[in-house]
């Protein structure tokens, strides 16, 4: 089974993000809730379970702002929300988990973001419309991310959490 490590966007902002996701990419919206991916594809499930517990115990809840909608270089690649990670906490968290990443993903520079339209699941015509409608819109949604999740893909039902670990209250 494929696993990943994510930070789910909590309510009430999750509803705002998911309204956009359902409108422009209903297939991906049905497979997974709004999130920031830290590790796209975990290579060692047991190590990930232990590391997530260790990292969460030393991390305070993360405050970030979902700022501006951006488009990847082509409309067919999708649309995402930029994450203002003021103190670098999300990037630091990714750095603590990066060695769990599959080699293909490890070569890609990490950019914290929330995907709104995913290039693999949206119809190309809808991708063009989404790009024209969404790109460069300012949102400025402040969110506090209270936990880290290890998620698993079931091809029939989508992604679900197999481990949710709250961050430490004091950091």
Structural description of this entry:
The protein is an alpha+beta fold and 171 residues long. The protein has one domain (3-166): Cyclic phosphodiesterase (Cyclic Phosphodiesterase, Chain: A, Alpha-Beta Complex), CATH 3.90.1140.10. The chain contains six helices and eight strands; from the N terminus they run βααβαββααβαβββ. It has helices at 13-24, 26-31, 45-57, 89-97, 103-106, 124-134; strands at 3-8, 35-39, 62-71, 78-84, 113-118, 138-145, 147-154, 158-166. The strands form two sheets. The protein has a four-stranded antiparallel beta sheet with strand order 2-1-7-8. It is globular, with a radius of gyration of 15 Å.
Brief sketch in words of this structure:
The chain has helices spanning 13-24, 26-31, 45-57, 89-97, 103-106, 124-134; strands spanning 3-8, 35-39, 62-71, 78-84, 113-118, 138-145, 147-154, 158-166. With 171 residues, the chain is α+β, with helices and mostly antiparallel strands.
The largest pleated sheet is described as:
4 strands, antiparallel
CATH topology: Cyclic Phosphodiesterase, Chain: A
Radius of gyration: 15 Å
Number of domains: 1
Number of H- or I-type helical stretches: 6
The largest sheet has its strands arranged as 2-1-7-8
| CATH-level-2 architecture | Alpha-Beta Complex
Calculate the mean pLDDT score and round it.
Answer: 91
Please identify which CATH superfamily we are dealing with. Cyclic phosphodiesterase
N-to-C SSE series? EHHEHEEHHEHEEE
Using the coordinates above, name the CATH class: Alpha Beta
Number of strands: 8
Task: Classify the helix fraction into a percent range.
Answer: 25-40%
* Overall form: globular
- Could you tell me how far the N terminus lies from the C terminus, measured between alpha carbons in angstroms? 32 Å
Going by helix content, strand content and strand pairing, the class is alpha+beta
Low-confidence stretches: none
């Amino acid at each position: 089974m494929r696993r990943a490590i994510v930070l789910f966007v909590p309510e009430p902002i999750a509803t705002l993000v998911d309204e956009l996701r359902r409108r422009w990419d209903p297939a991906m919206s049905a497979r997974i809730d709004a999130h920031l991916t830290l590790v796209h594809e975990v290579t060692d499930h047991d190590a990930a379970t232990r590391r997530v517990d260790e990292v969460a115990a030393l991390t305070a809840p993360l405050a970030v702002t979902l700022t501006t909608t951006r488009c990847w270089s082509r409309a067919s690649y999708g649309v995402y929300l930029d994450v203002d990670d003021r103190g670098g906490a999300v990037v630091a968290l990714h750095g603590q988990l990066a060695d769990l990443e599959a080699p293909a993903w490890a070569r890609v520079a990490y950019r914290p973001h929330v995907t709104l339209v995913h290039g693999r699941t949206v119809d190309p015509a809808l991708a063009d419309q989404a790009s024209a409608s969404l790109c460069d819109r300012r949102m400025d949604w402040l969110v506090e991310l209270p936990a880290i999740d290890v998620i698993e893909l079931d091809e029939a039902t989508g992604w679900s959490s197999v481990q949710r670990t709250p961050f430490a209250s004091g950091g």
